[in-house]
């Protein structure tokens, strides 16, 4: 069987990002160059209780291949049930365990980056995913620790659970999204274990992605916040190009808009406002443009405005 994920070239992955990496956005980055897309973080609780909203979040676009679903949780039996539900959904190629989310509501619940403070617990939860997962891949996304950096210890525990690869965000939980990313720690994890390591954290553009790959010797990069408002970074990495034309940017923005309307219906126009705030950064007249679109809810008018502005 031909592997869907090939590490002969660095893998370029879209990070799961709550509120952003929904189906339309993933479909767009997939089309323009991402090797792998991952769902927004799904609470194993919500999945087990069959929340409608959660099941919609798991849906994927036909073009997303390979596609992973990321789950969070801290109770082995809930994690097992969540994995079994995902096993019955076609089109999912892997299950990723979130061991990195710093958000207080996730952390205080014992999930996400909380697991990094109790490596026995991390091992128990991740081994549960591995044991019940019938999909081809099991992976984990981690940070460097809760308060102290222990990348090597974390890497070894994750590897011992039998995962296929690990993505590491180069900050501790305490570092949230502000502390400088420690690429040395990512490099240390990479050197200490034998499974592929994907580097994540502040990879904002083509240059930075190249630099991080070279410095850490990682097997790929995962880009999350750096792709909001600039999803063409995947296109640049895929094609090895530094400069991207405004025409290409406009094509990608319109493609994203159409995908959002397609998936979310008329309400999508309002949802797209926050994305246009990001897309318009650095353009002349961006402030006026934002003021106007904040009042537009009509799908067609909004599209015309995007056409004219970009």
From TrEMBL:
It catalyses: a 5,6-dihydrouridine in tRNA + NADP(+) = a uridine in tRNA + NADPH + H(+); a 5,6-dihydrouridine in tRNA + NAD(+) = a uridine in tRNA + NADH + H(+). InterPro entries: Aldolase_TIM, DUS-like_FMN-bd, DUS_fam, tRNA-dHydroUridine_Synthase_C, tRNA_hU_synthase_CS. FMN binds at residues 70, 141, 169, 224-225. Its EC number is 1.3.1.-. It is an enzyme of class 1 (oxidoreductase). It comes from the Bacteria. The active site is at residue 101. Keywords: Flavoprotein, FMN, NADP, Nucleotide-binding, Oxidoreductase, RNA-binding, tRNA processing, tRNA-binding. Its cofactor is FMN. One of its GO terms (molecular function) is flavin adenine dinucleotide binding. CDD domains: DUS_like_FMN. Residues 14-300 form the DUS-like FMN-binding domain. Belongs to the dus family. Catalyzes the synthesis of 5,6-dihydrouridine (D), a modified base found in the D-loop of most tRNAs, via the reduction of the C5-C6 double bond in target uridines. This is tRNA-dihydrouridine synthase. It comes from Malaciobacter halophilus.
